[in-house]
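Appendix C reproduces, verbatim, an entry submitted by the partner laboratory led by Prof. M.T., so that reviewers can inspect both the input and the predicted structure.
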Amino acid sequence: MRLVVGAFQDGRGARYGVVAVGPSGTVLRVWSGGRRDPDPAAAAMQAVLEGMWQTRRLGRRLRLCVHPPEVARWLGRESPVPDEYLSWFVQVRALSHTFARVEFLPSSSAEVELARRVAQQGICEEQPGKDVELLAR
């Protein structure tokens, strides 16, 4: 399973979009949210934690594609986590143990745009059977 997470600044703080994609490319769930503070990294950490919690029963292997890319590097233990994000990091790492395998990768440009669209439109719904390419349009 792939979880696409993107967080972005907007005029009211930071918004995030999350898309859960099954192994065949079918969109399983889409949702968005926001924070009053304008920190996209904090919003991304919150979205990753929510995404892992929401999808933990849908599969044992999880590939998280995260924007901003520094958040993916922190979660993948490729760079040090700043102190203000340590509590999020610890929660995400603890929840990762409920999966057989978890990968944290930076989002591709197409994934960033998909997450941005979800965040901007405020989408929050189940998407059974919808193809990820159709959602991107």
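Strands lie at 2-10, 13-21, 26-35, 61-67, 101-106, 125-131. Additional entries are available on request from the coordinating office.
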